[in-house]
Automatic annotation (TrEMBL):
The keyword Protein biosynthesis applies. Residues 69-123 form the Translation elongation factor P/YeiP central domain. SUPFAM superfamilies: Nucleic acid-binding proteins, Translation proteins SH3-like domain. GO terms for molecular function: translation elongation factor activity. It comes from Serratia fonticola. This is Elongation factor P. GO terms for cellular component: cytosol. The gene is efp.
Length: 141
C-alpha cells in the first residue's frame, strides 16, 4: 500500500495506525511561529467506530489501509450472523451482529448496503437509503 505523510491527510483517507485501520475525518495543518509544524488529525477507528484525535509531526507518515467499500445485498439473518452477497460475483460474507447493530433495524431483504472489507473481512456496514420522489411533471411514454 502507499505511504502517506501527515501533510497528505485528507478527510476520507483510510490509514493504518497502531496496526488497525482508521478513517481520517478532519485534518488541520499547523505551522507555529516557533517550533516544528504538525498536523492535528481527527480520525475514526473502523473496527469499533470510536473517534480519536492525534497530533502528527510533519515528518510522520502512515501506511494506507487495505480497506475496500463494496456494494452488497443483504440476504438474511440466521440469529448469529447477517449474510450479505456481492451482486456481481455472488460471493457471500457473514457479518457479526455487533458490526451490524446500528443499521439492523433498517435492513430488508435484498437491501443494497455498503460493506467495508479489511483483508477480505467485513468490518462495517452502511445502509444506503433510497427515497421515492413524486414528479410534478407527468412522464409520457
Amino acid at each position: 500500500m502507499a505511504t502517506y505523510s501527515s501533510n497528505d491527510f485528507r478527510p476520507g483517507l483510510k490509514i493504518m495506525f497502531e496496526g488497525e485501520p482508521y478513517a481520517v475525518e478532519s485534518s488541520e495543518f499547523v505551522k507555529p511561529g516557533k517550533g516544528q509544524a504538525f498536523a492535528r488529525v481527527k480520525m475514526r477507528r473502523l473496527l469499533t467506530g470510536t473517534r480519536v484525535e492525534k497530533t502528527f509531526k510533519s515528518t510522520d507518515s502512515c501506511e494506507g489501509a487495505d480497506v475496500v467499500d463494496t456494494n452488497m445485498n443483504y440476504l438474511y439473518n440466521d440469529g448469529e450472523f447477517y449474510h450479505f452477497m456481492h451482486p456481481e460475483t455472488f460471493e457471500q460474507h457473514q457479518v457479526e451482529e455487533k458490526t451490524v447493530s446500528d443499521v439492523a433495524k433498517w435492513l430488508q431483504d435484498n437491501a443494497e448496503c455498503i460493506v467495508t472489507l479489511w483483508d477480505g473481512r467485513p468490518i462495517a456496514v452502511l445502509h444506503r437509503t433510497l427515497s421515492k420522489q413524486k414528479s410534478l411533471i407527468p412522464i409520457q411514454a
